[in-house]
Amino acid sequence: MPGAPQIAETVDAFHRGRFHLVQPKGRGHRAGMDAMLLASLVDAPGPIRVADLGAGAGAAGLAVAARLEQAEVTLVERSAEMIAFAAKSLALAENAAIAPRVVLIEADVTLTGRARVAAGLADDVFDHVIMNPPFNDAGDRKTPDALKAEAHAMTEGLFEGWIRTAGAIMVPGGQLSLIARPQSVAEIIDACGRRFGGLEVTPVYPRAGENAVRILVTAIKGSKARLNLRSPLLMHDDPTSHKFSAFVDDLNNGRSAYRRK
């Protein structure tokens, strides 16, 4: 429409150009390392059905589809604006190889029962569910960017709601994977409850001697195995450099998966 405001956006290459992502420019959440680490937690030698809950523009889900050629990915996002960006990404010629294997669902992750099923999230469908839930708590400084605030604002019981949905839509024995702040570890373990077992928690450190900034968590639906705290993942080997370690660089660029022990 003539005179309509143009939405500022960028088209960014990930995995060294294996897929491209349309993202808002100057506002909203910008995908980066968190999404790529989350995607690296998915590993399968053959066909796999993956749901990316709270997918935003779709970075993590598209990264899975780009690395695993037999993965079918469903991006679930409640923001109509962010789903629109994901749709633009799927329309790119650069993403022609993965677009037929990706489905978009505009829905609130916390829907339950019939409302969830009506939105397109049926019971016992997915082999793997990934999520990067909002991580800012009530005490954090608030951003004036409404789109970014929606993506980052944690609400009470958030992990319970998201992990409940993951458990409902996942097949028995399926894997849950998420990335979060270390401060959320107790809430995550509590939310997994009896739904998921065999939790593996990996603290992510910028460098040796520094505090963890993220945790990677995986769990198996219905497992009775006990929690396992894995060796830390160091982002940078050299304390004086911002260059990623070789393994982290492989994870970030889709050359390797971070497999369960």
Molecular structure report:
The chain has 261 residues and is an alpha/beta fold. It has one domain: Rossmann fold (3-Layer(aba) Sandwich), CATH 3.40.50. The chain contains 8 helices and 11 strands. Helix 1 (33-40) crosses helix 2 (59-67). The termini are far apart.
Give the domain tally.
1
CATH topology: Rossmann fold
Low-confidence stretches: none
CATH homology superfamily: Vaccinia Virus protein VP39
Rg from alpha-carbon coordinates? 18 Å
Domain Methyltransferase small: 37-183
Protein name: Methyltransferase
GO molecular function: N-methyltransferase activity; nucleic acid binding; S-adenosylmethionine-dependent methyltransferase activity
Keywords: Methyltransferase, S-adenosyl-L-methionine, Transferase
Write the layout of secondary structure elements.
Blueprint: E1 9-14, E2 19-24, H1 33-40, E3 48-53, H2 59-67, E4 71-77, H3 80-91, E5 102-106, H4 113-118, E6 126-131, H5 146-152, H6 158-169, E7 170-180, H7 185-192, E8 196-205, E9 214-221, E10 228-229, E11 233-234, H8 246-252
Parallel strand pairs: 3-4, 3-6, 4-5, 6-7, 8-10, 8-11
Antiparallel strand pairs: 1-2, 7-9, 8-9
Helix pairs in contact: 1-2, 6-7
GO molecular function: N-methyltransferase activity; nucleic acid binding; S-adenosylmethionine-dependent methyltransferase activity
Protein name: Methyltransferase
Domain Methyltransferase small: 37-183
